[in-house]
Specification:
The structure is a single chain. By secondary structure, the protein is of the alpha+beta class. The chain has six helices and eight strands, in the order βββαββββαβαααα. It folds into two domains: about 80 residues, Elongation Factor Tu (Ef-tu), domain 3 (Beta Barrel), CATH 2.40.30.100; about 55 residues, no CATH class. It is about 35% helix and about 30% strand. The chain has a four-stranded antiparallel β-sheet. Strands 2-3-7-6 form a four-stranded antiparallel β-sheet. Helix 5 packs antiparallel against helix 6. The termini are far apart. The mean pLDDT is about 90.
Length: about 160
């Protein structure tokens, strides 16, 4: 039997809190999702889709809206928004660049260490490597990540 993921829509406004901008998720939506206080969700923000996890800050349920998303959508704090949340319980996976994978295979324990990192820490290291503008910088970042893993450090 296949179940359809829970989906709920609501209208609100993009909210700023200090240096952060996000979506305040109403308590009734959290209750209807029935997946705890911090569920993983697919977000449709005025037609712009991304994956996120609902967080809790000052007893409010929030979804962070990054500067990159605000730039792509043209949204600013205070703008009215339509939000559709769909519960997403599929595993998050990162694509490991071949050069990074090769170096990890050569260094015993680093593949296992990397696999044990949270998705966000895995993405941090992958983003550091893939955002390098030169091959020298890319290799230096790979070497730095491997050194951290061998030292038992996540970041």
């Amino acid at each position: 039997m296949t179940t359809t993921p829970s989906t709920f829509s609501f209208d609100t406004e993009l909210t700023a809190f200090g240096n952060n901008t996000g979506i305040v998720v109403p308590p009734d939506v959290i209750n209807k999702l029935d997946a705890g206080r911090r569920p993983a969700v697919d977000v449709d923000l005025n037609g712009y889709k991304f994956r996120s996890t609902i967080g809790v800050m000052a007893e409010r349920s929030l979804i962070s809206v990054s500067a990159a998303i605000r730039k792509d959508t043209g949204l600013v704090a205070g703008d009215p928004i339509n939000v559709t949340l769909t519960l997403n319980d599929t595993a998050r996976e990162v694509s490991i660049p071949e050069d990074f994978a090769t170096v990890m295979r050569r260094n015993v324990g680093t593949e296992e260490f990397f696999a044990a990192l949270s998705n966000s820490l895995q993405r941090y290291h992958i983003d550091q490597i893939t955002s390098a503008k030169t091959s020298e910088t890319r290799q230096r970042r790979i070497d730095t990540a491997i050194g951290l893993f061998l030292a038992g450090k996540k970041r």
